[in-house]
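Appendix B. Extra example for self-study. Work through it before the problem class; the solution is given directly after the inputs so you can check yourself.
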Amino acid sequence: MSKSTTELVPSNVGLGGLYRRYRRFALHTNTAIRLGGGVIGLLVLVALVGPVVSPYDPTTQVLEMRLRGPSLAHPLGTDALGRDVATRLAYGARVSLALALAATLVRLVLGTTVGLLAATGGRLVDILLMRLVDIQLAFPGLVLALVIAGVLGPSLRNVVIALSIVGWASYARVVRGTVLSVKERPFVQSAMLYGTPWHRLVKRHLLPHIVNPVLVLATLNLGTIVLAAAGLSYLGLGAQPPTAEWGSMIADGRNYMRSAPWLITAPGVAIMATVIGFNLLGDGLRDRFDPDHLDDRQRRRT
Amino acid sequence: MLRSLLARLGSLSVVMAGVSLITYGFVFLTPGDPAHTILREQRQSSPSAAEVAAFRAEHGLDDPFLVQYGSWLTDAVQGDLGTSYLQSEPVTSLVLAQLPNTLELALAATAVSVLLAVPMGVVSAVHRGTWIDRTSQIAALVGVSMPNFWLGYLLILVCSLWLGLTPVSGAGTLGQLVLPALTLGTGMAAIVTRLVRASMLEVLDADYVDTARSKGVRERLVVYKHALRNALVPVVTIVGLQFGTVINGAVVVEAVFQRPGLGTLLVDAVFARDYPIVQGVVLLTTFAFVVTNQLVDLAYVALDPRIERRGERP
Amino acid sequence: MGGPLEIDDLHVRFRTQSDTVHAVNGASFEIAPGEIVGLVGESGCGKSVTARSIVRLESPGEIVDGHIRYDGRDLTTADDRTLRRLRGQELAMVFQDPSTTLNPVYPIGEQIAEALRVHREPDAQPFFKELARGASARLRSTSVRSTVLELMETVGIPQPDRRVDDYPHQFSGGMRQRAMLAIALARRPSVLIADEPTTALDTTTQAAILERLAELNDERGMGMLVISHDFDVVSALCERIVVMYDGVVVERGPTDELRSNPAHPYTKALLGCLPRRTEPRSRLPTVAGTPPDGAASSGCAFADRCPFATTDCRTSTPPTVAVGSDRTVRCDVPAARDAPVEAVRTPRPDTRSDAQRDAPSLAVDGGTDTAAAATAAPGDDSGRDPGDNSGSGPGPGPGPEHAAEPIVELEGVTKSFRQSDALLDRLLGTDDRVPAVTGVSLDLRPGETVGLVGESGCGKSTLAHLVAGLETPDDGTVSLRGQRVGGVDARTSSQLAEIDIVFQHPGASLNPKRTVAQSIAEPLLEAGWAEPRRDDRIATVLSLVGLSSAVADRYPRQLSGGQRQRVAIARALALEPSVLVLDEPTAALDVSTQATVLNLLADLQDELELAYLFVSHDLDVVRHIADRVAVMYCGELVEVGPARSTLSNPAHPYTQTLLDAIPDGRTGADRESRSATGSGSDALAGAPPSPAAPPAGCAFHPRCPAATEECSRTEPTFEAVGDARSRCLYAPEWRDDADRRETDADDSRASEDRPGISEGAPVPDVEAAESIETTDETDTQ
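Solution. Structure tokens for the complete assembly:
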């Protein structure tokens, strides 16, 4: 269908190009990338430096200092066990970032491999793998993660496992879709004409084209994983006390909401800032790399 | 038509078969012997060998896996999801008892999200680049990035504790529905807003929108009659998907507002290792999601006359 | 009838974050009531922006200066209400690509009806009522419905009552463009602005649409502005022509004068580039330099490409000079204005400064490169002169055909594609296969060019892929030097090196993430060449295609379209193939670039003894470059023969149809007669039948002007007719008759000359309703 129309339209795309160019620049992608990168950079700095600089221990209870409001000594106050909230926040940043990075990496490797296999393997391989992808995508993500983490037993490691298992299918879809569309492009056909073997075709022409969409997906994914992990910890399935983790800090603070609102505010803002950072970065990268952008529904699943 | 229906049913049953297999297989992820672990955690002490054996016999855990799975699936297809380990009640009736609460929440949250998101997304796209657009884009970004349990507490803090407008927890009355629905709906709305905006921007650039303008059609009709209708197709997908996976949010939001429902049932069952309930809820919610997906596909035909011809979507 | 439409010193710019693009830089022209004016220029010259600005749809561009006056009112300052009124009642617009200009979710009828309602009451447009109208799938109001049906009939949509509630996707491209036309006519406009109205259509459909436009102008006295990149399209229709270059009107005047005696060097260049203006297989004149990019510049924008440019031209803006009555040129150099068309060729070396020569070829597509190629090629330019050609060139004579064994031989090649990819269909094996190529036998000899022509979807690209090995035939054989070969996977490396392919879109055939050198190196790498040898070869092929070695490290996006196509050709040449499959290699290029690429291909063929399979939908191009022509219809070859005779004296009615459809920009008298004869070629404009269900008998019979009942029953065989072969029951008579027509006056296109033609040609196949045009249309109007 589309082929027959493109076949006859000559290159009078000057006007269209102009309009497209206009739109792309109008999105201020650089601002988004810079802002998002800045937020994430700051966060990484806090996670690295914070614990070193802080005079407090994140887990030692100081009962006489319970529920103190923000002050010079405790810029974000103390919690119900007298621990410094700011210090716990910095340690929590380590947990969140490490967890998000680990789970994203597993998803990425697993999903990309499956996607590549499905797109380049035989028809049967494709059918089987894509059914697997369909099955994974049929599960509500957080529920599946919740059940896996619950069955394995509550711990941070199991949260990583659970969140890795549920998210890889989106990568598989994106990679397969990209490879299949690139495969039809004339430059790949040319390459086939001079007898390029399959593995070199993948390396030379296909892989470079999946890097960008996968990178964008991964950046956006980091944010959703931070959210999901915080949710699981909030429910009591992730980090176990006394580990400092943002989600469980909110769970701990909920009973003191009226008297010590900073207990839920600080970790909440931290989670939000992290996710905003990753989202800005991901959106910015997407607009830069791939104006046709990924289906929004692929990133929506936890 | 018949063929595409058949194909659809075929792939649906393959997916559901895989889903049920995995759902049932959860039990065997339990570290060590499931029966032993379950009993130990229930009683907080090591069970005797005889107790473990009795438990295994009672719940048919001695059969080979496929036999167990087969009989569970056969029952499940007939509406029998087994019996709870702890409450010795049929899982089906436990689930059905909680379903209305969650369904109510899901519908209310979806309504909130659509009512907030569509106008916001359209206005944002029409006034692209202005302060209205920027404000709504920032709002949507914040909405997407906020953990919903945290938003729930903020709403409780402001509306219930400070202003005393709504009850803090429970379910049943309209007042008790407002905050949970807002909490759940805001996050969904943020995603839909971004999608409506993106979709509208694309459609507003389309040639047929210029055709409409060149006919002398009023701008308001150009936007709502010619553009929005076309922009709705992806929006319907995402709203359907969100409705289908609302259980994800419900798990957390029901915990925040201490609201009975499927989410609460599931979380409690996960902690108690009451696997029949866990399996039942997961199977039901997954099935609900898959069915919603199919309904969305059907809705497409009404929205976009081209789909009919294209047949099955990839 | 409204007043004149005047565009006065229009300036439109686009502001992006990084730069400002001046799309229109002071365009001025006018359209008198009832007049047809053509606006011509290459891509990026600002013609579309000008057209959109007239109806004030220039956003996101801004009109920064100048006026657009219609009937005394200034549209640049008009408020929304006035604009709505004008758009709804006076100024209608038809856009380029009918696949995107109709709203996909509303039935055609509703979209026409909406225009009617707006026309009637532009200020009413009740919001919710309109929304509700959109929601209903059928057109309710009977009075509106009958007007809509009338309009559909007027624009030539057959069986309007059956199609009125259909959606755009159920219409073919040509029918969609007719629907657009109906939407425009619903407003009974005084001026119709048509922006590339036929560019996205097949030539046969294009001819029908152009004819319809001419009739409408005749009947309604509707003024028109027809915008096109194609000089022939515009001249076929317009009384006056406006030529734009870089946002400026460089010349305007009556069509005939402008064509026969163009004054501006750019107009000369544009006309000179057309393949039909030169002898077949001769060298096409080309324009030097690259089209401007819309950056602000002082002086004449064309100066850099103009062989007559003086220093004045580069520094001061040239004045607009009147040449004769009603004719102006924006050029101050008398020598340039008076020079013949042929003079505007590749600039002579002495007109170029040294500085320019030192910065060669990077941004330049045409001149320097071709000059370089020409010097690299053995033999001098004069050897390609038309006069010399018949003697030494591989003309249509018996030369190459008997000179050697065929290098590529197709025998009874058949290929079909699966219609559905669904799992269930695969399992059940119930999928319908759509034939793309059916029983094609064709051979290609060393050093010859075979042109493969046909409408879109006729299977010509599939055939090209079969030859290259990108597809394998279901049946029949493809042989290379007498040896049967399969797909690429089954070919030996020396067989792979023999054939290479050049695709239509040069942008898509190069991996955007690899440099030019990397792209060209790939086939060499696969063939196992060592690095120093590879580098040498890359330099060699780059110079062969006339690109400087500095291009090697660039990425495709840094090159112009013509340069990219040269790189693609260079890569195809890397392994010294003996056959090049060229799949619409110039279809995506501007005419001036097309000319340089065609010249390059001719040079390469001479030098390297290449055989070309040249796939194209453009008969002028094929006539120019091909020795033999193969015409495809519905997956079958319907005629094969020497290019010159086949394209002047075809032995198959389909070939004649294609020839008739070419807009030929003949003189004013022809334009008159053309519009007067009415629906001449309109009857041929129906879309080709669906390949899934080709008509019984001769596949062409439902569209054939000479079809008899016999044609719907008997499938014709491929028979020799003179030096050609044709698949038509009446080929000999057809050809004899064509001979007679040939000897007759120039008026060979009048339909009454055709043999066996009957006004009420039997229409045996109701299934092919889409392709049946109402033959008695003129009577109904």
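Self-check: The first helix of chain C runs from residue 47 to 54. If your reasoning did not lead you there, revisit section 3.
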